[in-house]
Amino acid sequence: MNKKALLVLSIGMILISVGACSAHETSERLNKEPEPSVVEESLPEKDGNADIPSAPDPQPKGSRQVKMNLDFKPGFHISSEEYKPLTIEAKVPAYSLNADLSNIENMDQFSNLTQEQRAMISKNGFVVTPTDSQQLFYIYEDNTYKKIPGFVTADSVLQLYHIFYDYSLRNLETEFLCDDLNRLNESMIRELTNEYQDADNIEVKDSIRKMLGYFGVAGLALGQKLPEDFPAEAADLARQEYDLVQAASGKAASPMFGFDIEYSLFKIRGHYTRSDELGKYFRAMSWYGIVPMPFYDEKGQRDEESAIRAIVTVMALCKAPADSGVKLWENIYSTTSFFAGESDDITPYEVAQAVQTVYTNEPDMNQIPHKLEDFYREVEQMRNADILWKMEGIVTQPQMRFMGQRYIPDSEILQELTEPYKRPFPCGMDVFAVFGSERAEEILDEIYQPKQQWDKYEENFRKLADQFRSQTVEEQTGNLYNGWLYCLKSLTSRVDSGYPLFMRNTAWEDKSLSTALGSWAEIRHDTILYGKQSGTECGGDEPPEILGYVEPNPEFFNRLLWLTTTTRENLSDRGLLSDSMKYKMLDFEDMLDFLKTCAWKELNGEDLSLEEHYSLLTYGGTLEYLSSSIAEASDWYLVESDTDKHMAVIADVHTSDSAYLEAGVGTAAEIYVAVSQYGKIYLTRGAVFDYYEFVSGERLTDEEWQEQLKQNPPQRPPFTDSFMDKTSGGEVPVPDEPYSTGC
């Protein structure tokens, strides 16, 4: 199955009041002239419908016209040339290590390493050890000071992309989307209140009352006060629901709708714990994204009451003036879809098309029940969600969600590879095995053994593997989330004999999977609301002749460079990127291009120049500068949030009854790698993720996770034993003449 991109309806171009464009466009807030989006420019003209209709005169409340002459347009997708993979022929000269490491030129620098760690270097060419460093760049800065040859890892640039992604998203939410959400919710309450007062049909009036309660819950979550004319019964329902949302204690029957809701999902997590405003936004958007309006009940029978609720919601959205209705909805939805993908469930725009077909361009809400037979014929043509919870009481039938949680491919994989009683919890390794990692499949068979737990695992796995491995590059890069995953896939391929010694063993494959999983945990953290479950110039000492090395995976650096460039260009075109952030991203792109060149030269058997080695020597300072500037601080220690200063983050990625699969990264780990340069072997040091995955009795916040790491950290996944010594090797000694950049 190829995931079809949802089409977002351009109601704002043809509804009442559309002639006056919204003064609320994000581009205007950034002091730019409003421009049509890329997708609008590509819309074909409709015969006889080239002109935008003017707003009609106001009509009586019960019979107001809704212009449902609808054109579709895509959501906010990545607009760029399709990525083209590199053609690589590795030609690294062969080298070997003496058992006692006596042929490593600078081994005397590392008296801190234990015998066990030295043995792992002798066997695999590298070893990973834990540290208590709160950020990866601290290890590289320590390298500079202690004149240690640096090993630039994929982890270090992935961490920087995570900081950019997370801060960009939260800034958009704080500066623009929080206000949009407040205005949209107020508008929906206003429109539904008018309809409630004018409705004559009892079924319709009851549905409007419940939807007033629905938007009342979102209003309370946002800190809004319910209007004075808000129906008392709806207010009571809203307050009962909001109490459960605030408690966030687990699965319970909804007092408003009757079906079960997993209320623990409303626990504020991710970067949304950083401010009250973001916390309110999280709960309101979670309410929009989690609570459904199903068209069928658990037994597959029509749920006509719920269908009426969906219809009145869509009509109210369409009847609102465009700048306070569909334009706001579209701005929130399309912006977040660029970061996290399209809704997995049916959207209001899709239901609006059915409403137009069945109820014409001038629908009367009182007539809704009389044409439900025709409406259900339209529903039968609508798509089904791909991520369906296997949990008793949770509605999984076709349903509309006002701002549905997004389809993310890894959630589909985790969902399809679980079974409530035989295999209730998946693992992150499932994801990369499906994507095509041979080593991940081997680890599943050797350690996790899912085929022995569940006889349908192999069948489901092969279907998913066929589905995802046959996707085109375009299908794998439709939004930033998918583009990030596409970068991670390049880390998990097996290499041939032309690659360096340390890469040609299963331990390196395991380390690379740990890198991919660590970055996957970060993207799940950054999109926890939206994803549907399952340098400065320095004047210091003269540069010493210290050799550096870049993880020799130019394809990875090329993919991340493409993703970063595409992100900048698309956000700029949309008017969602400030000039200061644009220049920071350009600096990041320059760094990625440099690292790609270094990696390419290494694989081609070429030595790096002294200038390139000096740039690698100061890599830690460059990394901290970019991290700090993206976080809008002159130095990392000035970052406002203590939680943000620490790289440890966590995300719940799957739910089974009242337990949750958590994926996270801890403090920085260090990696010692034996590399060959200028015909000699040197031991280098770099920084990598420390990946954790475990089942928890509660959904964890970053603050709770960072405290747990201090007090009682969980066991690391068993596959890390092949490359990681779980005891710290201690501090590398400071040389007699440490190096200073003068910064």
From TrEMBL:
Residues 1-22 form the signal peptide. InterPro entries: DUF3160. PROSITE patterns: PROKAR_LIPOPROTEIN. Keywords: Signal. Residues 27-65, 709-743 are annotated as: Disordered. Pfam families: DUF3160 (PF11369). It comes from the Bacteria. This is DUF3160 domain-containing protein. It comes from Enterocloster citroniae.
